[in-house]
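Checklist before submission:
- one chain only
- standard amino acids only
- sequence pasted in full

Submission:
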Amino acid sequence: MTRHRAALGVGLSLFFIYLAVFEPDLKGYFGGQESLFSALFSHGRIDFTHVWEILGRIQLWPIVASILLTPVHVFLRGYRWRTMVEPVVTTDHPRMTAFDGFSLHTVGYLANAALPLKVGEVARAVLLARRIGISRSTAIATVILERVIDLLSLLLLIAVIWFFFPIPKRFTDAALVLGLVSSAIFALFAYFATSKKPFKGLFGRLFGRGLMGRRARRMIERFIVGLSVLRASHHLLGVSLWTLALYVIYAAQVWLMMEGFGFISAYPLISASPVVACFVILIVDSIAIALPSAPSAVGTFHAITLLGLSLFDVPADPAMGFAIVQHLGVTLYSFAFGIPCLWREGVKLAELKGSIIEERRGKAVDH
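Returned file contents:
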């Protein structure tokens, strides 16, 4: 299953790379005017010579400033995660520091950039469990809850932006599906976190009988501990405020990147409302990163960023240059900061991959 998922991710990346670079002419093929190879590969979408020229004309200071904000937003993510973990720890466990959150998030970025299957989320949960002595189920619960909150926040952002910009139906339909799924998961988490007897009724019948039922129940009980922030209103308020700060930083990074490429002054739809444009591109980039892909979201990120910028009439060549630089900035951060953070955590990338595979196959011991 792991190999199949890796193959699926690589296949999707290759498909999106193709869509970003070529414009297939299937009408020409079915009309008999072109061979299949000619229809698929003779119509280039990108002139890479022109892309290179565009990259040579960009303003460097806004690009550099955008990239330098990456560790800032990672630190904010780490601090928010610390706020979520704080209600979980007891006097028997060492406390998670803000720098722990930064370091583990950065290791997650590195794992996502270097390994398939987006293993970074599981990686940081496994390392958190080891660092502060909580169960892996509890640590994974905090990571999943964090991602659910990210999804709900993104959907709220889409709902707000929709009043100012005609987001295409394909995005709103996808948002509706994500909204229903994430809302259902959040409601289930809230039930388990706040209920005094979560295993009464249906859940009791599912997990109350037999050896497998008891094992599943113990694992779920550890998982529920990771949802403790949902019972702590002041911590939940902190999570909400840090999430708002995160989106401000993300939008600032997109703004600076657009400034570096001259998009704000060059394209009327962007210059008319640059703040809305920044948040639309942020939404599109978030969807691109969430899709299954090869390591570092190669291909999927570039193709979907091109699609997002096309909403503002940005041609393919400057849009591809924008996507390349934006993607390169995050990738450089992942390796430049990720390797020292790996040393801090005392693991090697290969060892990390092995522990993740064990975790996903259920072979790791959940203490």
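Reviewer check: The chain has a mean pLDDT of 83.
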